[in-house]
Design goal:
Chain B: Residues 1-19 have a biased composition (Low complexity). Chain B: This is Binding-protein-dependent transport systems inner membrane component. Chain B: One of its GO terms (biological process) is transmembrane transport. The complex is a heterodimer of chains A (437) and B (319). Chain A contains 20 helices and eleven strands. Chain A is of the alpha/beta class and 437 residues long. Chain A folds into two domains: 40-152 and 320-391, Periplasmic binding protein-like II (D-Maltodextrin-Binding Protein, domain 2, 3-Layer(aba) Sandwich), CATH 3.40.190.10; 155-318 and 393-432, D-Maltodextrin-Binding Protein, domain 2 (3-Layer(aba) Sandwich). In chain A, helix 3 links the parallel strand 1 (40-45) and strand 2 (68-73). In chain B, helix 6 packs across helix 9 (177-206). Chain B has helices spanning 6-12, 18-22, 26-60, 79-85, 88-121, 126-139, 142-153, 160-163, 177-206, 209-217, 222-233, 235-250, 254-259, 269-279, 283-307, 312-315, and strands spanning 63-66, 69-75. The longest helix of chain B has 35 residues, at 26-60. Helices cover 72% and strands 3% of the residues of chain B. The chains are: A alpha/beta (437), B mainly alpha (319). Chain A binds chain B through residues 79, 83, 86-87, 90, 108-109, 111-112, 114, 195-197, 222-223, 253-254, 256-257, 262, 265-266, 396, 399-400, 403, 410-411, 433-437, and chain B through 64, 66-70, 72, 83-84, 87, 89-90, 154-156, 169-170, 172, 174-175, 261-264, 272, 275-276, 278-282, 285, 289.
Chain lengths: 437, 319
């Protein structure tokens, strides 16, 4: 071996040595938390105004080194959140400890075995004093599989001046028919979500539930065995409301591509004097009025009441939403995760989160908090609505059902009395694997 | 195309190729061997990373398999293909995809050629500026460009309704199939015309200037020179540009996903595959859609290479 060759070997050995040291230190980085005894919990959150991040920091600090929570942000769209989580969970990703999960995807995630069981002794802690709908949303096959964090519901929002001019008595429940007539008389629009998206299912489900029906009659069943209740009197009543909105031309411009955010903007810009939407619109309107992008008088004209009824004398079953937090079955720190969850969903945190992010609490007692009452003057309407709310179909096939409804009931102008039967047939075929979606 | 010049151009080049091969020397053999040594590892890796997923997709497509219900996995033979090929949604997506491909590639070819001419002809300090300006859209990520076009046309954020004459203030471009497809095509054309013009520019550079000069001396008009000299000499480049873009356009996904998500009858084949595999997590059905999409791409390649005789090597000036 001459001098040059041995020099080259030395360099190679040196490079390999550096590589080994680097790899070692990288592994050490990954296990850093284990070395200090503080497990790092990774919490996948839906995007918000920073409320969940703050809760994570507060709980980490309060844990006294029992755990440290880091957040990872999911996409803003519920369907995309599901896609990302499902892909990771199906791959057995151990980096997910906690996840903020839309209740409609709880059955699918649980059925697939992706959720760590909720410890027996903690079940009461997580459900005591929580609104019924939220507990239902976190339950699958009679077992609590996720933890209710916040519970959302839609209200009917209106411009007080327009409702008054139309002669509507908003102290009593109003019907869709009354709204359509009022909007037509006042030459305004009703803000509804007509986009081919999950928001369409929220609307259709709420109308079917309000008319006494249900989209799925046996939600526990496997896909091919699911019995749908869309082709029913309730389904026809829902289709009739949509038809009347289209015929009267009170859907407003761009109805076919409007989701909740676009509806809130339309209402804010006075393009609609009525709308059905989640309570975030209030915080958004307030910020716009304070920021000078909306006239203060318009914000002061905001009124709210419970969701529109399908018929006079029959109370509405408003949409139920919110976020549950679940612990991944692949987490290596499930005990710490459940310990952290007790802190995350505490009454104090739920109240602070409602004030900071505009998302209504799952715990009923939070609505008695003076700070919450001041920030959300409609707290009582939210509480009443949550009590009457009907969850969306609790099925492991929610995505198929929802996409099928959105596909068949959109555009609103195409809805007819044949839509319920056509959509029932289509979704049935999709669930049996006989149709593409 | 001109029948007089093409054979001449085609006949002139293989002279260095095939007859030479017959009398291959030891040196040539050694070079070929070296070529394999150099390209071999890359070739093996390519086969592993593309071949493996393709074979797995083929295998999965024979099952009824939902990612969230692995226990219910069942072998069903070709039933997934039967479901897809008898579904009107598949054919609607196919028609949309073919339409988008034909329309965008045709327009891009004409526009791209015009831009390539501009890039080719412009001289002096203007040259780098013009070339950069033309290539900028291609540097934009497709998703970003799709959002930009969507925001421009959307009812809430758009300004197009106040710019385009004869369009009402409340007109929703994405609520109607044809206007939605129009915006999708416009965005696609804006984004990828520079790619075609770049390939055509390389072709233009290969056209011998003395042939053009000779045609000029012979009294050919600019139009005749274009059709009888420039274009025939660029045939290989044009065909390669056409093939690359057709394959690319056929797999259109981003624009549709961002702008309509397949609403208003704008579904395309790639978006359909995504929806079954990623959104529904129906791995079997989705794999079958992907396999069919792959077959379509193979057919396009076959048509281009066998029927239209696209020679990929020659277009790069290797012939």
């Amino acid at each position: 071996m001459d001098g040059r060759t041995s020099g080259r070997w030395r360099r190679l050995v040196a490079v390999a040595g550096v590589g080994v040291v680097l790899a070692g230190s990288l592994t050490a980085c990954g296990d850093g938390s284990a070395a200090t005894g503080t497990p790092t919990l990774n919490w996948y959150i839906n995007p918000d105004n920073g409320g969940q991040q703050k809760i994570a920091e507060d709980c980490s600090a309060a844990s006294g080194g029992a755990y440290s929570i880091e957040v990872s942000i999911l996409p803003s769209d519920a369907a995309q959140q599901r896609e990302q989580l499902m892909r990771r969970l199906a791959g057995g990703d151990t980096s997910i400890d906690l996840m903020s999960l839309d209740p409609v995807f709880v059955p699918e995630t649980s059925e697939a075995g992706f959720l760590a069981p909720v410890p027996e002794d903690l079940r009461a802690t997580f459900t005591d004093g929580v609104v019924d709908g939220a507990v239902q949303g976190a339950t699958w096959k009679d077992e609590l599989v996720a933890v209710p964090f916040w519970a959302n519901t839609q209200l009917l929002w209106y411009r007080k001046s327009v409702a008054e001019a139309a002669g509507l008595d908003m102290t009593k429940p109003v019907t869709w028919q009354q709204l359509i007539e009022a909007a037509q008389a006042q030459d305004t629009a009703i803000g509804v979500q007509g986009q081919r998206a999950e928001s369409m299912t929220v609307w259709v489900n709420a109308m079917i539930a309000s008319a006494g029906g249900e989209v799925i009659e046996n939600p526990d069943a496997k896909g091919p065995d699911i019995r749908l209740g869309i082709d029913s009197e309730a389904g026809k009543a829902a289709a009739a409301v949509m038809q009347r909105i289209a015929d009267a031309g009170v859907g407003g411009p761009g109805i076919d591509n409007r989701d909740e955010a676009a509806t809130a903007n339309l209402f804010q810009q006075e393009g609609a004097a009525f709308m059905v939407n989640w309570p975030f619109v209030y915080a958004q309107g307030k910020a716009a009025a304070e920021g000078g992008t909306m006239d203060r008088a318009v914000f002061d004209d905001y009124g709210w009441t419970t969701y529109p009824a399908m018929a006079e004398g029959t109370p509405a079953a408003p949409p139920l939403g919110g976020i549950d937090i679940a612990v991944s079955a692949f987490s290596e720190n499930t005990d710490a995760a459940y310990e952290a969850l007790q802190c995350i969903v505490s009454e104090e945190n739920q109240a602070a989160y409602m004030v900071s992010d505009g998302n209504p609490a799952a715990l009923e007692s939070v609505y008695d908090d003076p700070e919450v009452q001041e920030a959300y003057p409609m707290y009582d309407a939210i509480r009443t609505s949550l009590q009457a709310a009907a969850p969306r179909p609790q099925t492991a096939y929610y995505n198929e059902v929802s996409q099928g409804i959105a596909d068949q009931w959109q555009p609103v102008s195409s809805v007819s009395d044949r839509t319920p039967s056509a959509s029932q047939e289509y979704i049935g075929q999709v669930l049996k694997g006989e149709k593409l979606l | 195309m001109s029948a007089t010049t093409t054979p001449r151009a085609a006949g002139a080049r293989p002279a260095a190729g095939k007859p030479g091969k017959a009398r291959s020397s030891d040196k040539a053999r050694a070079e070929a061997k070296l070529g394999w040594y150099l390209a071999g590892p890359a070739f093996v890796i390519l086969v592993a990373v593309t071949g493996y997923p393709i074979l797995q997709a083929l295998y999965e497509s024979l099952f009824s398999y939902r990612l969230t219900a692995p226990g219910d996995r069942e072998f069903i033979g070709l039933r997934n293909y039967g479901v897809i090929l008898t579904d009107s949604l598949w054919w609607e997506a196919m028609v949309n995809t073919v339409l988008i491909t034909v329309v965008t590639v045709a327009i891009e070819l004409v526009l791209g050629f015009a831009l390539a001419m501009v890039m080719h002809k412009v001289l002096g300090w203007l040259r780098p500026i013009v070339r950069t300006a033309i290539l900028v859209p291609y540097a934009v990520i497709t998703v970003v460009s799709a959002y930009a076009w969507q925001y421009a046309f959307a009812l809430t954020t758009g300004f197009m309704n106040s710019v385009v004459p004869g369009v009402g203030e409340d007109f929703d471009w994405f609520a109607n199939k044809w206007t939605a497809l129009l915006v999708i095509c416009l965005s696609e054309i804006w984004k990828t015309t520079p790619f075609i013009s770049l390939l055509l520019l390389a072709g233009l550079a290969q056209v011998p200037s003395d042939t053009i000069e000779a045609a000029k001396v012979d009294g050919a008009t600019a139009w005749e020179r274009l059709w009888r000299v420039t274009l025939p000499n660029m045939k290989a480049s044009i065909m390669v540009a056409l093939l690359f873009r057709a394959l690319d356009a056929f797999r259109i996904f981003d624009n549709v996903y961002i702008m309509t998500q397949g609403a208003a009858g704008t579904q395309t084949v790639s978006a359909l595959a995504y929806n079954q595999t990623i959104s529904r997590l129906e791995i079997g059905l989705g794999s079958a859609v992907s396999v069919l999409l792959f077959v379509c791409v193979l057919v396009i390649c076959f048509l281009a290479i066998k029927v239209f005789k696209v020679d990929l090597a020659r277009a790069r000036g290797e012939g």
